[in-house]
Amino acid sequence: MEREKIERRTFLGQTAGLVAGLSVASAGCARLAKEKPPADVSTIISYNPKMNYRRLGKTGLYVSEVSLGGHWKNRSGGRYWDRFSKDEVPQDVAKNRTEVVSACIDAGINMVDITTAAECCSYGLALKGRRDKFLVAADDHVLSIRHPEYRTVERQVVCVEECLRRLQMDYMDIWRPQAMMDGTNTDDELKVLVETFQKVHDQGKVRFLGISSHDRDFLKHVIETFPELQMIIFPCTAKTKARTAPSRPLKPEDVVEKDAGAGGKDFSTSIFDAVKKHDVGVVTIKPFSGGNLFPKPAEFPVLGAGAKTDHDLARLTLQCILVNDAISATVPGMTTVYEVENNAYASYTRTASLDWQDMKILMEATDRMWASLPDDYAWLRNWEWV
């Protein structure tokens, strides 16, 4: 009997510690009610009553909270396709993307986020004849303002037009330029994006303007400085936590927390507070840390249904991220129809609380991933406190 009491006490202590630890992750991976959709759901593209939809800030668009990331596994096991020779999409790639997009539409997923020329070509083919079923956000990283020679209105107009040519579309819903990952673009360079947007918007080629970066302070500055920006894109994993307001007046040493994984930047407030204040939509990328969450990355083409443990981790990760009501959508890359169905199910079942066993599995896997990120993904640790 005494042994039983001790074991139960130990169990409860461990569980309490786990729940306490998990309560600061994202927003605790706890239960969150569905966002109330607009009265007329017919305005939601590819609406499925099982899917949760969220307003994308001041764009007024309603997007599926689990949407489609443009990246997927390539033949070398890498994370994305960059360019195809002569813009010709290989037959097996075209077939795969068409099947995945069809599964997305059936599941109620209604947005794709595109960042390369090859992705423009592939999704342009996959959406041929059904452009009205998907919201398209696009840019080409090779032609983006990450490169000094493209930081003019004329060159950015070319970027938009090249995306549309490869997409075989007359317009994109969101032009989402890719800024420097380290946030070193200047305000003058951002003004180029605004001027470009105004020009292509007036021509009917782009409906809304977004921006992506891997630097939190840069994006917060953009939100507060450029009201023309209607949505932003940044990384978010199950490890990401919103920075909460301090319970006491800040001291100077509190403003910069060099040990918080932020490179000594200001973490006294959360970017999530800024997006709510300015009504800016948020799309988050890298939910699976570029595939590093999973033990064994697959190569294209991925055969079969995939590992159950991978599907479980994917679903739990998406549910944890989506607890944060400041996030409009998360966009995992999806290589197979099975992944589409599993990730959509993460939204279908999200309003049921995760039990402690699920949370334990998720956090242990996420902690392992976090500790062993490869050098090219070490920067992701800067996105633990946001």
Structural overview:
The chain is an alpha/beta fold. It has a single domain, classed as NADP-dependent oxidoreductase domain (TIM Barrel), CATH 3.20.20.100. Helix content is 37%, strand content 10%. An 8-stranded parallel β-sheet has the order 3-4-5-6-7-8-9-10, with helices on one face. A two-stranded antiparallel ribbon has the order 1-2. Helix 2 links the parallel strand 3 and strand 4. The chain is globular, with a radius of gyration of 21 Å. The relative contact order is 0.16. The N terminus is likely disordered.
Summarize the structure.
This protein is an alpha/beta fold and about 375 residues long. It has eleven helices and ten strands. Helices cover about 35% and strands about 10% of the residues.
Assigned CATH superfamily: NADP-dependent oxidoreductase domain
CATH class: Alpha Beta
Supply Rg: 21 Å
What would the principal axes of the Cα set say about the shape? globular
Mean pLDDT level: 87
The number of strands is: 10
The total count of helices amounts to 11
Strand order of the largest sheet: 3-4-5-6-7-8-9-10
Number of domains: 1
Order of helices and strands: HEEEHEHEHEHEHEHHEHEHH
* Biggest sheet descriptor: 8 strands, parallel
Structural class label: alpha/beta
Q: What is the CATH architecture annotation?
A: Alpha-Beta Barrel
**Low-pLDDT stretches:** 1-28, 255-264
Question: Tags for this entry?
Answer:
TIM Barrel; 386 residues; alpha/beta; 10 strands; 8-stranded parallel beta sheet; 11 helices; two-stranded antiparallel ribbon; single chain
